[in-house]
Write a structure and sequence with these properties.
mainly beta, 4-stranded antiparallel beta sheet, 1 helix, 122 residues, 7-stranded mixed beta sheet
């Protein structure tokens, strides 16, 4: 059974940085595309970023381009989301997800983590 466990969330002031981690188990991590989503109170869950199994291709939500960086370490079975220049609008529960391809993790991920709260104060 696939398990995805996020960590690294917390409270940060606007302009600050956080790095989220998602540790995977129960899957051949190196064969899966991985991604991050977020859901703010009262809003739909939205895609944030995704990375191909090999790490050689990424895709980002327009509003986070240049501020967020997704990366992965297949040896550690972990995907990361480095978030810089955080804004209050980035406040949300962040979830990691897995899919067969970059497009699939973006559109129809197969597995989800439980989420980690990110709160950005103004």
């Amino acid at each position: 059974q696939v398990q995805l466990v996020e960590s690294g969330g917390g409270l940060v002031q606007a302009g600050g940085s956080l790095k989220l981690s998602c540790a995977a188990s129960g899957l051949t991590f190196g064969l899966w595309a991985m991604g991050w989503f977020r859901q703010a109170p009262g809003k739909e869950r939205e895609f944030v970023a995704a990375i191909r199994w090999s790490g050689d291709s990424t895709y980002y939500k327009e509003s986070v381009k240049g501020r967020f960086t997704i990366s992965r370490d297949n040896a550690k079975k972990t995907v990361y989301l480095q978030m810089d220049s955080l804004k209050p609008e980035d406040t949300a529960v962040y979830y990691c997800a897995a899919g067969g391809t970059l497009a699939q993790v973006r559109d129809t991920p197969s597995s989800w983590g439980q989420g980690t709260q990110v709160t950005v104060s103004s």
